[in-house]
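Service request form, structural biology core

Requester: graduate student, group of Dr. S.
Request type: structure prediction, single chain
Budget code: on file
Notes: please return the result as structure tokens.

Sequence provided:
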Amino acid sequence: HITVDFFLRFPPTVSSHFLLTRWGNGEMESLLKKNNIPYSFSWLGMFSRKMEWDNLKMSLHAFIKLPKLYIDFIRLQKKIKPDILYFANHHELILLYPVLLFTKKKIVCHMHDPTPAIPFQKKNFKRYGKIVDKFIAISDNVRNRTIALGCDPEKIVTIHNGITIPQLSNKGRLSDLANKAGWSADVFIIGITGQMTPTKGHADLLLAFKKVHEKNPMARLLIGGKPQEPFFTELKSCINEWGLEKFVFFTGWLESVSFFFQNIDVFVLASRHDEGYGLVVAEAMAHKLPVVITASGGAMEIVDEQQNGYIVPKADTDAMAEKLLSLSVDPATCRKFGDIGRIKVMRDFNIQKQTAVFVDYLLSLKDQNVR
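Core staff response, request fulfilled:
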């Protein structure tokens, strides 16, 4: 979605064509079709080092389809005649490596979540990194992690992702989700949304919330996103064990993340791993929400400590609880953080501005002899 957001805002002088995998679920195709962006299909798969049957089968299918992928890719290049071959991540570079060795086109790879800098991955990067003219990192954190893999620092630039700045009303917090949960209008609502997996830190936030609620009975917790098992059941078990059933509510999947943000008072990113960027943090700040985040990769490039939010150590539930408790009884600081946060996002992470930077960079490579 972020990639499409960039390409949608390209000037008329820059055209694009997407190559999609036939193993997709149709979501990307629908998104491109809806926005009148041309696309083609081929067999873009993935190789895995894991020895489980599903991973072996996935790797085998990708290997069998490689000849067809190479033919489709060569034909598409002849038809489109691109100036730049843009890769949304490094996996397709690995698949198309033999063909890319012989191309004279500029190759750009967007790095979102680099692999760990272990010996195998460093060796792998050394191979496919040679055919790339330039890497674009979505944050300085991603840039540093890519350099740790062996990337030449002169070969990679940081261009932060951007978001569409929402129009806000002056009506204050919406009460739709509070009403659905059976809560009164004067509660203080903490929110988290996103993929429901252990690495996103839901369990840490839940424990922190328990500590907050013990000192401020008006605190409530909204958990957004599609429930994923078995983690969802584990969270529910903790909620029941701690007697928090009336104070924690799962919204389920919501069509609009903006609607979620408009129904909470503070947003939490509780990740246990390094986020490449932390898009959801920028989105929350654009809705004038104060944020509490863990020291998680690129997300720390969005939040200014004690200016628009708080940064706490990963999995430190005491620190998380302390910051959330302080915000729950300090509406003035919440408003100040929210106002400052929105200004920063509008200035530094506006999709219109970031697209212009992105396009200018691609155009600057067109006539360079950079590889």
